[in-house]
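Re: nicotinamide-adenine-dinucleotide structure - here you go.
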Amino acid sequence: MATYTADAFVVRDRFPLARDEEPVTTRVRRDEACAVHVTDARGHLLQHLAAQIGDAATVAFIVDERVETLYGAELLRFARDCGSEVVACTVPSGEASKSLARAATLLDQLAASELARRDLVVCFGGGVVADLGGWVASSYMRGIPYVNVPTTLLAMVDGALGGKLAVNHATAKNLIGGFRQPAAVLADVTYLRSLDRRHIAAGLAECIKKGVIASPAYFGFIEDHVDRLLAGDARATTVLVRSAAAIKTALIERDPYELDLRRPLNFGHTVGHPVETVMGYGTLLHGEAVAFGMVVEAAIAVQRGWLAPGLFERLVSLLATCGLPTRSADLPAALDVVALRRAMHKVRLIRAGSLRWVLPVALGESVIADDVTDAEVAAALAARGVQ
Ligand SMILES: NC(=O)c1ccc[n+]([C@@H]2O[C@H](COP(=O)([O-])OP(=O)(O)OC[C@H]3O[C@@H](n4cnc5c(N)ncnc54)[C@H](O)[C@@H]3O)[C@@H](O)[C@H]2O)c1
Ligand SMILES: [Zn+2]
């Protein structure tokens, strides 16, 4: 028997010969945990960031240009003070950065740095940086840990959570991507002080959606505190963001890889996405398109006698209070119904022939149907002034 050096690690296996009549099957499972910390104190954010950095030799920041100007210096200096080498990769603000070309530039920057498997990527910005930076981190060296530090309300309550990553392709939004959970999401609501009211309202639309599909308590909280939320009250916003994280996380855990397309989180998106496409990206914010989509989809539920008109009016009134579009007149331009129908048919083709509709029937309860007719959609649109 040979003797080994003291720190040698012995690996011993005794596999039998494979029997040729049996298929060889691999079954693997990835166990990912993501902690979401929501705070209104920068000190807490930094504490959690330090814990995530740990003894990483290098930390790469993938940071939105505007966010870097506003808040970059503090976070980068902090990471350096933690003893890490810091690499700052700046991404121009806006949806155009969610591209393969931008991902390739970032990968070049990471490859030129010392960043290695046990290091950390921090995605610092809105939903664009979370989608793009997370995907880059998940493909660099086949995946290195990343942390999201979201700075828009939409990213705090939606985009930075759930591990869905993507860049856009000329033919479709979010066409190229994957699934990988961040190691943590660190949300400091004081970053929202510099965000304009329109973007706050767009984030609120995704919160209201969660209230309708999954939580009467959450819907009621938003109704009761809408003025404070729109004014950026830190306490109310902290509750808003933490609860959104709890609701989205619970729903994602049921189906993290979206194997089942009957997802209540798609409420407002069956109409909202095509509206976004038809109006042109950037004309309407995503949350605004979803708000209008929720109204049309809820109207279909009312037409079917499934949703009480009183509840429908509560939804419309809450969205309107936020300044979100609920009628044709609120949209920045006339909505072309023919183009909208065409865009919806295209989605139907992509989805193998059926469009899924999330029709709310009560707060926290919805029916997922694929038999909504063009006539029903046209009637719901007409009721909102779209002819
Ligand atoms: N992966 C998901 O599950 C998921 C869910 C929802 C949305 N998304 C994606 O998120 C993106 C939209 O996210 P978004 O609305 O955050 O957009 P965004 O990242 O483009 O940010 C919006 C704007 O706000 C600016 N900004 C960011 N933080 C700021 C701050 N604190 N103060 C002032 N300005 C600030 C940015 O520079 C940008 O101009 C879309 O690409 C969408 O597809 C992804
Ligand atoms: Zn959405």
